[in-house]
């Protein structure tokens, strides 16, 4: 990928034009149970999991043709599975690894090419983000043999498997912490942060705004998210080596990479450290060291980080560390657009983000856009059950660059908002309750009406499921949608979001109507000659004539 000429000024510009981590949206948990530089490696294939590397090509022409090197991002579609909720194979009501293996044909029909498993390690909490054994499999989910079987079955279908790795903190029940808390002379005392040992005040607020220091056996340990998740001390070389060893262990079992939870909080423990450049640099250096440590086992391992912050703050993590970082700005944009019916300036900002990311990564990054995950209210609840808006959100996500991440159940319209458990309710496989594979660890509340199920949607050509499937299929067939760069396209209406996806060899014009009324977008004269016909459209009444694109309500039109 190229770094645009404007890149040098982008960092400062983005710092003022992107959303900081809003208090109401902070992920309390992906990592919380509040209710209970070096150079980047030379290989370019790991980011998408595909064999093909990234191209950087040049072409002359206008807005349809590329007038500089093309920022391609080879990509695949990933699917996040909250393991406990997805599929139960043994009738105990808890989702498990064999249950996932039994649903791989379903995922293959949907079209996904990679899956992300939320934590599978032993944990005392339902969500698993407080680990008690980094080398084991939660017995509620199965065994290591079951995990290896899942890997083999997925790989046999051409699917990648990445797993959540919770590096920032452990469970307070982890043997390391139990030992650390036993006294100042404990073997692993310095594996965690103790205020008294380091002469620190216990008055500081945590990075999440709550209590940072928690009392135990006469001392106070630091825990960013809650007292059940004590933070590890990454200034201790033994901790760093152990975490690299853990990563290599799972790569050795055959996993294809990791989703790295709470990545910026390895060193950003306190609210006063937000925006601190020295702290940010220490985070970057650790994750570069982690990447180098994994290269011994698999230099192509895919690393995607959870850095819930501005794009300017995310960019350094892409320098020799992560292949991708989840794009929370894109998530906010999609969610806001389908609710408000207004496009905002995101499509104009994305090329600037990508230029910054390209500069930091040496052109090796791949974006990780998403619309929803296990920490956010589900889309169908956000749009109050409007299937057309849910389809529009899918259309937007699946026509953007990078590795799009889908959240389980979004493809059938599961609902859920408020408490975290509501966002993670059981997957509905059948129209009637108690069908094969359905979990029951948590009673249905948001989905008690069973408005959505795989059984009802999988053969309905107009269903939300098949809307997702068609867009994923189109994305696979069209290199510009799968791997291409993005150029913003101006429109006269804030109710239309438009952009061009382009490789060195082809280009596609994409326009989304964010309203319930038919609208027309005017392709600017400089670009109109590059597009001659409709490649794909949703809804009735789409047309393209004399540079005018008629877009159906909540519809998408793609020109070639």
Automatic annotation (TrEMBL):
Q: What taxonomic classification does the UniProt entry list for its organism?
A: Bacteria, Bacillati, Bacillota, Bacilli, Bacillales
PANTHER family registered for this protein in UniProt: ALPHA-AMYLASE FAMILY MEMBER (PTHR10357), NEUTRAL AND BASIC AMINO ACID TRANSPORT PROTEIN RBAT (PTHR10357:SF179)
Keyword check for Hydrolase: yes
Tell me the Pfam families matching this sequence. Answer: Alpha-amylase, SusG_C
User: What highest taxon heads this organism's lineage?
Assistant: Bacteria
Native source organism of the sequence: Cohnella xylanilytica
Q: What is this protein called?
A: Alpha-amylase
**EC numbers:** 3.2.1.1
EC top class, as a word: hydrolase
Bias kind Low complexity: ranges: 47-65
Biological processes annotated in GO:
oligosaccharide catabolic process
- The yes or no answer to whether the keyword Amino-acid biosynthesis is present is no
Query: SUPFAM superfamilies recorded for this chain?
Result: (Trans)glycosidases, Glycosyl hydrolase domain
């Amino acid at each position: 990928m190229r770094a645009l000429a404007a890149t040098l000024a982008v960092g400062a510009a983005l710092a003022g034009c992107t959303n900081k981590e809003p208090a109401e949206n902070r992920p309390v948990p992906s990592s919380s149970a509040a209710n209970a530089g070096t150079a980047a490696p030379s290989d370019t294939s790991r980011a998408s999991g595909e064999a093909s590397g990234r191209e950087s090509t040049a072409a002359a022409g206008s807005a349809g043709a590329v007038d500089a090197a093309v920022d391609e991002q080879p990509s695949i579609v990933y699917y996040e599975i909250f393991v406990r909720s997805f599929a139960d194979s043994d009738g105990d009501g808890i989702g498990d690894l064999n249950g996932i293996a039994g649903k791989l044909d379903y995922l293959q029909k949907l079209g996904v090419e990679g899956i992300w498993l939320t934590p599978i390690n032993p944990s005392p909490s339902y969500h698993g983000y407080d680990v008690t054994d980094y080398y084991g499999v939660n017995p509620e989910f199965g065994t290591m043999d079951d995990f290896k079987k899942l890997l083999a079955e997925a790989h046999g279908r051409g699917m990648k498997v990445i797993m959540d790795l919770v590096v920032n903190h452990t469970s307070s029940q982890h043997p390391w912490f139990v030992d650390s808390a036993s006294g100042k002379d404990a073997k692993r005392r310095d594996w965690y942060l103790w205020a008294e040992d380091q002469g620190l005040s216990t008055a500081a607020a945590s990075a999440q705004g709550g209590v940072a220091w928690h009392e135990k056996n006469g001392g106070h340990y630091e825990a960013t998210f809650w007292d059940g998740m004590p933070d590890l001390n990454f200034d201790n070389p033994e901790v760093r080596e152990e975490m690299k060893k853990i990563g290599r262990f799972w790569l050795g079992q055959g996993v294809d990479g990791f989703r790295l939870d709470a990545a910026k909080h390895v060193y950003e423990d306190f609210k006063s450290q937000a925006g601190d450049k020295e702290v940010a640099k220490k985070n970057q250096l650790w994750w570069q060291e982690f990447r180098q440590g994994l290269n011994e086992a698999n230099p192509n391992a895919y690393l995607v980080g959870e850095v819930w912050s501005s794009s300017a703050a995310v960019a350094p993590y892409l320098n020799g560390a992560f292949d991708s970082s989840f794009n929370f700005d894109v998530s906010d944009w999609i969610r806001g657009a389908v609710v408000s019916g207004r496009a905002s300036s995101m499509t104009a900002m994305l090329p600037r983000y990508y230029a910054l990311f390209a500069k930091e990564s040496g052109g090796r990054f791949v974006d990780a856009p998403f619309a929803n995950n296990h920490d956010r209210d589900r889309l169908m609840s956000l749009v109050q059950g409007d299937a057309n808006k849910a389809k529009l959100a899918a259309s937007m996500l699946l026509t953007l660059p990078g590795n799009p991440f889908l959240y389980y159940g979004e493809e059938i319209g599961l609902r859920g908002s408020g408490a975290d458990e509501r966002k993670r309710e059981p997957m509905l496989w059948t129209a009637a309750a108690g069908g094969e594979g359905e979990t029951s660890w948590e009673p249905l509340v948001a989905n008690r009406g069973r408005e959505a199920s795989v059984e009802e949607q999988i053969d309905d050509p107009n269903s939300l499921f098949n809307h997702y499937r068609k867009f994923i299929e189109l994305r696979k067939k069209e290199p510009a949608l799968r791997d291409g760069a993005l150029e913003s396209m101006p429109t006269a209406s804030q109710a239309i979001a438009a952009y061009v996806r382009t490789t060195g060899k082809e280009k596609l014009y994409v326009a989304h109507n964010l309203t319930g009324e038919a609208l027309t977008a005017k392709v600017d004269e400089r670009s109109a000659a590059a597009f001659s016909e409709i490649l794909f459209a949703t809804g009735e009444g789409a047309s393209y004539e004399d540079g005018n694109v008629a877009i159906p309500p909540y519809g998408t039109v793609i020109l070639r």
